[in-house]
Amino acid sequence: MRLRRRVAPVRPGGRAVGTSQDGRVQSWMGGGHEGPGTFKLMGGWTAKVTKVGEDHYRARILGDAGGVSATQDANERDAGVEANRVYIVLSAGGVISAHV
Fold first, then answer.
1. Residue 20 half-sphere exposure, CB side, CA atoms within 13 Å?
2. Residue 83 · residue 40 · CB < 8 Å
3. How many other β-carbons are positioned within 10 Å of the β-carbon of residue 15?
4. Helix (H, G, I), strand (E, B) or coil at 99
5. CA separation for the pair 98, 100 (Å, rounded)
6. What ranges does the record give for the region Disordered, renumbered to this chain (predicted)?
């Protein structure tokens, strides 16, 4: 599994945009899940989203073995991660989405 934590997320108008370390840009709309809750994502990932406070959500990204592969912390701004070429973005409002 390849996990990159430096994805710059942007969600203008509900659109998710991920920029990876090597300059690749992915953009998508839809497919979001509103947390808190546990959600299946593209690429076989599972996200457990919890509300920490106002405009502050945390997501644990779980692999197929159930172990935590990454943690995203969206505290008043969105957070993103790239895992095996799957972009995963968590908004500060608790919406998580993924795109291959």
1. 17
2. no
3. 12
4. strand
5. 7
6. 1-32
- Given a contact cutoff of 8 angstroms between Cβ atoms, the answer to whether 89 and 9 are in contact is yes
Q: Where are the alpha helices (DSSP H) in the chain?
A: none
Tokens describing residue 22: 């090597």
Contact between 69 and 83 under an 8 Å Cβ cutoff? The reply is yes
The secondary structure of residue 21, as a DSSP letter, is T
Q: Which two tokens stand for residue 57?
A: 């959500």
Q: How many residues does the chain have?
A: 100
Which helix (DSSP H) or strand (DSSP E) does residue 50 occupy? strand 46-53
The predicted-structure confidence for 55-94, as pLDDT tens digits, reads as follows 999 999 998 777 888 899 999 998 888 888 788 889 899 9
| 47/29: higher pLDDT | 47
